[in-house]
């Protein structure tokens, strides 16, 4: 039986390992990362994001 | 009260727990604790409307210097009657934004969702958190634009948790 070529000229190369993105565009690497954390680490991560946003907002407000 | 720069999730939970409030963490923080990378700027909790719990909740909210987020800038504080009769309390506290809800989605209450809560240990705190499937259901039922926007990440996370048999709850 004929096998498809390892990399046809018009076929995009697939990165090895699990996919980085779902068909609808969700970043699967980020989900894998958060799932690898403990619940407390996930909450601390969220706190870091929120604090970072607040710092940015505060900095921008101070520039005005 | 000075405007807090950002919400302090653990601080809010600590005060609610210290006052013995019966509540379930819902919304974006529940999703994040369940492993979905969702950004949220407030803590949403679903509370039990039993009279004793209303008193404990009110004591916690007073310690937090809670007031309603009023677009007109009026200072309106929660009280027992409002907590007993109103459904949604969008509050600003000295530890940031806290949404205290008596129902979510299509009207599901604390009693409706108690069996869907998972116990999580966050350091010294033990909190009950709505499971991710129920968070998804509540957002599908609420069907606001911001809920619909979060659904692909939530559904993908649930699929990945299910495929790996993950359940971190205690």
Greatest interface (CB-CB under 8 A), with counts per chain:
A-B, 28 and 29 residues
Write down how many β-strands of chain A occur, each being a DSSP E stretch of 2 or more residues.
0
For the record, the CATH architecture of chain B stands as 2-Layer Sandwich
Major sheet attributes of chain B: 5 strands, mixed
Instruction: State the CATH class of chain B.
Output: Alpha Beta
Mean pLDDT of chain B: 94
pLDDT below 50 for ≥5 consecutive residues: which ranges of chain B?
Answer: none
Please supply descriptive tags for the structure shown above.
heterodimer, A: 64 residues, mainly alpha, 2 helices, elongated, B: alpha+beta, Beta Polymerase, domain 2, five-stranded mixed sheet, two-stranded antiparallel sheet, 42% helix, globular
Q: Can you describe this structure?
A:
- The complex is a heterodimer of chains A (64) and B (170).
- With 64 residues, chain A is mainly alpha-helical.
- Chain A has a domain at 37-63.
- Chain A is 53% helix and 0% strand.
- Chain A contains two helices and no strands.
- The radius of gyration of chain A is 20 Å and the shape is elongated.
- The relative contact order of chain A is 0.07.
- Mean pLDDT of chain A is 80; it is low at 1-9.
- In chain B, 42% of the residues lie in helices and 21% in strands.
- In chain B, helix 2 packs antiparallel against helix 6 and helix 6 (132-142) packs antiparallel against helix 7 (145-164).
- In chain B, strand 6 and strand 7 (125-130) form a beta hairpin.
- Chain B is globular, with a radius of gyration of 16 Å.
- The N and C termini of chain B lie far apart (37 Å).
- Chain B has a five-stranded mixed β-sheet. Chain B has a two-stranded antiparallel ribbon with strand order 6-7.
- Chain B has helices at residues 9-18, 27-33, 51-63, 80-85, 110-113, 132-142, 145-164; strands at residues 23-26, 43-47, 67-68, 88-93, 96-101, 117-122, 125-130.
- Chain B has seven helices and seven strands, in the order H-E-H-E-H-E-H-E-E-H-E-E-H-H.
- Chain B has a single domain, classed as Beta Polymerase, domain 2 (2-Layer Sandwich), CATH 3.30.460.40.
- By secondary structure, chain B is α+β, with helices and mostly antiparallel strands.
- The A-B interface holds A 22, 24-28, 30-35, 37-40, 42-43, 45-47, 49-51, 53-55, 58 and B 5-10, 29, 32-33, 35-37, 39-41, 120-123, 129, 152-153, 156-157, 160-161, 164, 166, 168.
């Amino acid at each position: 039986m004929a096998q498809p070529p390892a990399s046809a000229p018009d076929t995009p190369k697939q990165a090895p390992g699990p996919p980085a993105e779902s068909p609808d565009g969700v970043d699967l690497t980020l989900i894998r990362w958060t799932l690898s954390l403990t619940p407390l680490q996930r909450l601390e991560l969220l706190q870091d994001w929120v604090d970072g946003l607040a710092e940015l907002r505060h900095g921008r407000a101070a520039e005005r | 009260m000075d405007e807090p720069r950002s919400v302090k999730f653990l601080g809010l939970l600590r005060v609610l727990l210290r006052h013995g409030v019966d509540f379930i963490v819902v919304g974006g923080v529940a999703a994040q604790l369940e492993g979905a990378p969702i950004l949220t700027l407030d803590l949403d909790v679903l509370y039990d409307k039993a009279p004793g719990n209303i008193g404990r909740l009110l004591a916690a909210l007073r310690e937090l210097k809670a007031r309603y987020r009023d677009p007109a800038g009026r200072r309106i504080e929660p009280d027992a009657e409002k907590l007993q009769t109103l459904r949604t309390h969008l509050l600003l506290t000295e530890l940031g934004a806290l949404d205290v809800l008596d129902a979510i989605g299509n009207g599901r209450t604390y009693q409706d969702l108690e069996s869907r809560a998972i116990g999580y240990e966050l350091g010294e705190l033990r909190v009950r958190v709505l499971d991710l499937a129920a968070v998804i259901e509540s957002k599908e039922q609420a069907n606001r634009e911001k809920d619909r926007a979060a659904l692909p990440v939530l559904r993908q996370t649930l699929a990945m948790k299910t495929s790996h048999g993950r359940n971190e709850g205690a």
